[in-house]
User: Which sequence fits this backbone?
């Protein structure tokens, strides 16, 4: 299905389209998880994807940087277009294209996935030095800049095991920023956190959104989506069911499915019927 | 009133609990020592009363046998290093999507685990000689031991690599790391931490299995014990000395292994 951008006004701060997913379909065996998704994300736009578990939102995110190879479709990020190639997914040329896509779109995970055998600083400089080929001291400078941004510069020599969940996710954000990607992909970044630690992560993300970092966030945090999103996408049954500004999707959704989801999810605070 | 005055006094029973715990620990340790000393003493008395063990022989031939410990350690150390290399290659093969690599690794593991170590030692020492490859006894023994242990450790390494969460590889790849780099820098170091206790175990086991290379005349502990024991008609005494030295070596290396494990556990995890 096609997403009609013309139907809602584009916020003035966003730029040209930088992520362009076309006709994404994904099967796990016979299970049709994504049933044809088109998605455009513009520069400096913060897009939040909501929906029930099993609606395909995480799979869509993982297809965008090919952690899952889509069965059909294409993804273009910052001018690099990669076609789904399930039959030659392991070919060297395709793997290299995927790697280039990942340099443009960095992923944050639910379970943080910091490297436990490296210090916080080591986590941050590993990929910049070995993948981008930046000299070590330059990479350290970069890491310090982004660690300061997430408020963890004093933890630079700690090992991940000594950090709280919230701190780990903030380090993971700094680590991703060190690659200076064009887009950040967040896969339920606060779902594995104790309730009292969620705020610090959302705070960092909100700051990034307001500074104009392009991001696509799969989340269950409706309040956060309302505050930080430029656009909210509701997914249902492997397609984008509704797409619009947060006020519209969260307060006065048009689709029955969206209304049902929000009613169940938000309970009393749900949108009017 | 200060906060300190407000805090309730430390309950007196706490001191009694601590004292009781300490007593229990001391009692445990005491029993442990008694059991060991008594049982080892009984074995010693038994050997002594058999009349087949003479102090003269122990003092005269002990040093000669003990010199074999150096060879035993050398063979085991080089053997375990070879085994680690082979195990890593084997594990990569077993996890490979390349059919040839997988087949080779599987054949290696199956063949080595399905035949006795003694047969493997003969094959490498005598069998290869027929094929025109003449190895000295020590290299042949090292290769046989490394080859054998490498097969067993292949499965350990494979399990260790698989025990590293998949998200670690994904996180590395999401940062643009090619698969090989991600494996070498992210997955492998974590897998090594997981398998270190098992490597330690295998090293201690190899110290004892290295006795088998005495059969191809490597002048290690057991070979020397048998040789001098036979010529002096003190076989039992010579074997006893060898046994004590093997035991001592394993105790020493087990001690180091435990310390290493503790350090890894304490470290940065």
Assistant:
């Amino acid at each position: 299905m096609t997403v009609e951008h013309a139907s809602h006004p584009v916020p003035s701060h966003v730029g040209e389209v930088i992520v362009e997913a076309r006709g994404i379909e994904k099967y796990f065996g016979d299970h049709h998880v994504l049933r044809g998704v088109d998605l455009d994300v513009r520069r400096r736009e913060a897009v939040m994807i909501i929906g029930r578990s099993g609606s395909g939102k995480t799979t869509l995110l993982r297809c965008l940087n090919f952690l899952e190879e889509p069965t059909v479709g294409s993804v273009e990020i910052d001018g690099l277009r990669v076609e789904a190639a399930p039959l030659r997914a392991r070919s060297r040329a395709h793997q290299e294209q995927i790697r280039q896509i990942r340099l443009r779109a960095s992923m944050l995970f639910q379970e943080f996935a910091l490297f436990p055998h490296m210090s916080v600083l080591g986590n941050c400089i590993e990929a910049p030095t070995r993948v981008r080929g930046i000299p070590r001291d330059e990479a350290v400078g970069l890491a310090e800049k982004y660690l300061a941004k997430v408020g963890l510069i004093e933890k630079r020599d700690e090992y991940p095991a000594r950090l709280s969940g919230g701190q780990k996710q903030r380090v993971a954000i700094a680590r991703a920023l060190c690659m200076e990607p064009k887009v950040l992909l967040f896969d339920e970044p606060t779902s594995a956190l104790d309730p009292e630690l969620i705020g610090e992560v959302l705070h960092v993300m909100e700051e990034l959104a307001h500074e104009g970092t392009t991001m696509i966030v799969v989340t269950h945090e409706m309040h956060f989506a309302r505050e930080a999103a430029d656009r909210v996408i509701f997914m249902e049954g492997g397609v984008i069911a509704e797409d619009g500004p947060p006020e519209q999707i969260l307060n006065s959704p048009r689709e029955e499915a969206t209304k049902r989801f929000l009613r169940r999810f938000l309970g009393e605070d749900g949108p009017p019927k | 009133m200060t906060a300190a005055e407000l805090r309730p006094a430390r309950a007196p029973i706490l001191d009694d609990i601590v004292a009781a715990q300490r007593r229990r620990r001391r009692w445990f340790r005491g029993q442990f020592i008694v059991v060991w000393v008594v049982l080892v003493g009984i074995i010693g008395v038994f050997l002594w009363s058999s009349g087949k063990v003479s102090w003269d022989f122990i003092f005269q031939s002990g040093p000669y046998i003990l010199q074999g410990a150096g060879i035993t350690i050398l063979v085991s150390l080089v053997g375990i290093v070879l085994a680690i290399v082979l195990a890593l290659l084997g594990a990569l093969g077993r996890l490979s999507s390349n059919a040839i690599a997988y087949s080779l690794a599987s054949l290696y593991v199956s063949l080595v685990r399905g035949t006795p170590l003694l047969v493997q030692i003969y094959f490498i020492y005598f069998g290869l000689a027929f094929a025109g490859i003449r190895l000295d006894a020590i290299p042949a023994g090292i290769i046989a031991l490394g080859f054998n242990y490498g097969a067993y450790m292949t499965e350990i390494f494979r399990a260790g690599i698989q025990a590293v969460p998949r998200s670690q590889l994904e996180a590395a790849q999401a940062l643009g790391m090619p698969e090989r780099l991600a494996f070498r820098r992210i997955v492998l170091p974590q897998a090594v931490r997981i398998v270190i206790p098992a490597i330690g175990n295998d090293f201690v086991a190899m110290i004892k299995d290295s006795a088998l290379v005495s059969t191809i005349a490597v002048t290690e502990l057991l070979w020397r014990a048998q040789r001098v024991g036979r010529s002096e008609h003190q076989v039992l005494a010579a074997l006893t000395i060898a046994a004590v030295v093997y035991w001592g070596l394993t105790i020493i290396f087990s001690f180091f292994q435990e310390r290493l494990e503790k350090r890894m556990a304490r470290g940065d995890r």
